[in-house]
Amino acid sequence: MNLIPIEHARADMVLADDLRRSDNQPILASGTRLTDALLETLRERGVTSLSVRAEESVYVMDKEAQRQQVLERLSYLFRGNAGNITGQALFRAVYEYRMGAL
Amino acid sequence: MSTLSIDEVTRSVRQLPSLPAVVAQLLDLFSADNPDCAAIGHAFDRDQALAARVLRVANSPFYGMPGQVASVHNAIVVLGLRNLRNLTLAAAVTTSFPAFTSDWFDQKGFWQHSLAVAQGADVLALRAGMHQESAFTAGLLHDIGRLVLVTCFPAQAREAVLHQREQDCDTAEAEQAVLGLDHAMVGAALARRWKFPAAVQQAIARHHAAAGDAQAPDTLADLLHLADVTAHALDLSGDPHERVPRLDGGAWHRLGLQWSAYGAALRDIEQRSADAGRLLAA
């Protein structure tokens, strides 16, 4: 399961959990396959995030979102290498490796 | 502060069990110019638990012959001598300390990291034209001093771990601040007790401060430092608070590697580290 912002949701992703309103009224059941029309409706209703099956979220998540994710994690991992030129070269090597694998 | 004296730690290291004699014998047999496969088989006969563990891993799908490796002789054929040597060492070392369970030290994550550094050191040694067996051994043992501290001085080791988390600093830095010594020095003492070569002992002692003595550079320590930093950078131990130690520029340049060649090695390191993790489940 993967909680993602609605901007990252795409048609064909499958809900991992029931989607409910803040008063707990159901909107969509777990297992529902999303469509563009459903996503539009959810945005109109003010839904900001939803849980989708992890493997599908990774598959469909666009490359830019994945790049952001890689960059954020690497920046966190390398927090002790600030100002270290060799450490920054290592950062680039690992970043390029991760992006090449996407 | 709960400082430890070097004497205290040395006494504790002396009381730790030796590696089984059969392991030292096997390492000698493997490193011979023309290894005697029959003698290797006989040596394994003396430690059936070790042989069984090695065969369980040799029978994993990774080696392509699942369920078909029935004997050490088969394992030599399927794995090759160098892989069998590394697997034997890893099987012996990862069972050399009792299981330690706590909410502040993840022993499985510790071994995952050690195996990743061993594999990384092995891969990078090939690229740097260095001795791969020494690199693998040093990689496997590089943090073993942490396990000594955790096992023999749990209260002090816990304090160092909590300090490291609070300060978000490197492990060795936290140990120096709290204990007055660090795991690299303790690990080198255990490698000495276990009679590993002097080059391996020294590389373990210097893996966090590879450039510490610019007059007497040690390329095995440099390689170990790079392999350790690489394992952290590849995020291989599953620690959400993972932190990459500062890569020493002098160590990098002394190894003579190019960034393009290094980048090309990362896939191999990551893949082999994942495979090595099977040992912990065997």
Mean pLDDT of chain B: 91
CATH H-tier superfamily of the largest domain in chain B? Hypothetical protein af1432
Number of helices of chain B: 17
Strand order, sheet with most strands of chain A? 1-4
CATH class membership of the largest domain in chain B: Mainly Alpha
The number of helical elements of chain A comes to 4
Oligomer: heterodimer
CATH level-two architecture of the largest domain in chain A: Alpha-Beta Complex
Number of domain units of chain A: 2
Notes on the structure:
The complex is a heterodimer of chains A (102) and B (282). Chain A has 102 residues and is α+β, with helices and mostly antiparallel strands. Chain A is built from four helices and four strands; from the N terminus they run βββαβααα. Chain A folds into two domains: 2-60, Alpha-Beta Complex (Molybdopterin biosynthesis moea protein, domain 2); 63-100, no CATH class. In chain A, the strands form two sheets. Chain A has a two-stranded antiparallel ribbon with strand order 1-4. In chain A, strand 2 (19-20) and strand 3 form a beta hairpin. The longest helix of chain A has 16 residues, at 85-100. The longest helix of chain B has 22 residues, at 107-128. Helix content of chain B is 67%, strand content 0%. Chain B has helices at 6-15, 21-31, 37-45, 48-58, 72-79, 81-93, 107-128, 132-141, 144-152, 154-167, 171-179, 183-193, 198-205, 219-233, 249-255, 259-276, 278-281. The model of chain B has no long low-confidence stretch (mean pLDDT 91). Chain B has 17 helices and no strands. Chain B is globular and about 55 Å long. The A-B interface holds A 73-74, 77-81, 84-87, 89-94, 96-97, 101 and B 168-170, 229-230, 232-235, 242-249, 252, 259, 262-263, 266-267.
